[in-house]
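call fold(seq) -> tokens
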Amino acid sequence: MPSGEYLRYVALGDSQTEGLGDGDDTVGLRGFADRFAEHLTAVSPGLHYANLAVRGRVAGQVRAEQLGPALALRPDLATVVAGVNDLLRPRFDAAEVAGHLEEMFAALTAAGAQVVTLTFPDVGKIAPLARPIRSRVFDLNTHIRAAAARHGVTVAETGRHAVATDPRLWSADRLHASPLGHERIAAALAEAIHLPGSDDAWTRPLPPHAVPRGWQAAAAELRWAAGFLGPWLGRRLRGQSSGDGRTAKRPQLLPLDGPGVSARARRSPKGAADGG
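ret:
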């Protein structure tokens, strides 16, 4: 495939790839994969794009449920982004999670696809209450880089740039990127594959802004815990996921402006959110 020209792009993953935080289930979700497909289409107008991601899926579920359909679509480009939901589980094993990712890397590259993945930012700087799991993030990133290197997978190093923890790049739940965050991720992927017209502008910091301190910061943490962390933990205890009963939003390869699944038909219960 000539540099920068792609015909079939397939996205595998969880809620970040599905697009949570960028739109909603009423008006529709956009997300970094859709935005990356827009970058690709600007260079390759004949691009067809499928998005197999489903919110709430851990890496093993992404491999089990999405790898086969992805291979059947014969992509020449694929993104594989998963593992955040695993980070939030009590029994987290970075090697096991990365093993599922590596199986996808190996199968897709063996089938002739160029594969792109990314690293994750320091969650402790995004949500202070998540500091106990920040070492898990660093460990998983190390494993992702090693697995990617073994299979010639391109890594967008979103986890290494300070701007990735700017709160303006995250939605209110601090688990999903905001529209601006999804935009930056898409730009990072474009730069990682050296797409014509891409550059490192996505790494640049945003203008200074006021940061809550003291009691205001503490109050914000309590609101976040009550509004998002508590409900998430409640679903885990009940064995539930916001992805229950959901299917991929774009299971077939279509032109970017082609028809998709009705967002209204895929709506989750009001207020549902998941870790990734």
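Residues 214-237 form the longest helix (24 residues).
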